[in-house]
Amino acid sequence: MKKMNKTHNFNKKSVVEEAAARLESLLREAGFVRRVEIRKEMRKGMGPDFTAEVFTEERSFVLLVETRTSGEPRLAREAINALTASSAMWSHAYPVFAAPYISDKAAAIARENGAGYMDLAGNCRLSFDMVYIYTAGRNNPFRGKRQLKSFAHPKTMRILRVLLCHPHRTWKTGELAAEAGVSLGMVSTVAGRLKDMEIIENRKRGISLAQPKELLDRWVGGSSGEDGPAESVHRLSSFMDRVRAENALARFYEKSGVDFAFTGFSAAVHLASGTDYPEIHAYVSDDAAVPGKAEGFEKSSDNGNCAKGNIVLVKAQDKGVFYGKRRVMPSSRLQYCNPAEKTVEVVEEEIRMPMYIVSPVQVYRDLHVLFGATAAAGKLLRQAIEPSW
Predict the structure, then answer these.
(1) Closest Cα to residue 156, out of 181, 138, 175, 136?
(2) Is beta strand 93-99 parallel, antiparallel or unpaired with respect to 60-67?
(3) CA-wise closest residue to 290 among 260, 323, 320
(4) For the segment 5-16, what is each residue's pLDDT rounded down to a tens digit?
(5) For the chain, does the N or the C end have fewer beta carbons within 10 angstroms?
(6) With bands split at pLDDT 50, 70 and 90, how would you rate the model's confidence at 139?
(7) Cα–Cα distance measured from residue 172 to residue 366, given in angstroms and rounded to the nearest whole number
(8) pTM of the entire structure?
(9) Cα(65)–Cα(80) distance, rounded to whole angstroms?
(10) How many angstroms separate the CA atoms of 343 and 65, rounded?
């Protein structure tokens, strides 16, 4: 059996050949199997891609195998439907779906429909009569042309962010490309991948989001930064209360003409009740200038005391992070400006300062990926994001 290159771009023929060889090898390793006969010539092109007849001392079994060049849910469902139709031509046959790599959701679809599955990465589940072969946990070593390396690429993130910010909207490809600021080809690539994963649906009027929670989870889980430049971070300290410090930051960057919006804890406290507020978190589009002593801030040193800074400024590596930013209502800031220590006039002036936060889904992603604040992210999900679905 030839060794497959991890960047191999599979076609139908190569998947059939490799799957047949691996399935035969798997079955031969079972001690009670006497021989295995693989047949690839089907009845006038009808039926599965190949069959495997398994002979033991007492009887024989027939496996019907349907292959696809990708093992995502939509293709798994399509293959299993084809196998169901083929079963009418074979009595007591066991259907098996095979692909280069089979996702967990695709594997679940196979199980739910009484089918087996196997992939070229080594994962499989074959359960018929006295036979039970199961292997799981093998990672995907293959990369196809259309497969995304991760959801962390900035332009991919733009598309996902737009879909998540408008979970009920149906998009034409051109509309989505224009809204996300990416090419039509990029939208087609990402949409094709999401369709295979059954995260989006193709409708007459365009594409729409079918599984927002799964898309959000995959975006957060895949946002490790390996496909784009890492965010540069500045930590500052200030003795001002949070509202005054935030106002000073907003003023500084407004004068500098730099895009600026709060994220992380600074945004979550305005979106979800009961959120703790230990630090100030914000995005800036340009960090060439950072506020200093004149504005009431000090840079945390790089000698190990960096973590003591109570203000975190993150340089946005892509303008997409500001998509869907919104202004926070003044009343939501009142409890954070120490009102008992100030006059009414001062409090009113402080809380009316324009305050912008990034979109709730961006805040959720940042709480997980940048700040490791899973509890705060959970509150945000339950109170502000899931109700919009």
Answers:
(1) 181
(2) parallel
(3) 260
(4) 444 667 888 899
(5) N
(6) confident
(7) 29
(8) 0.72
(9) 9
(10) 77
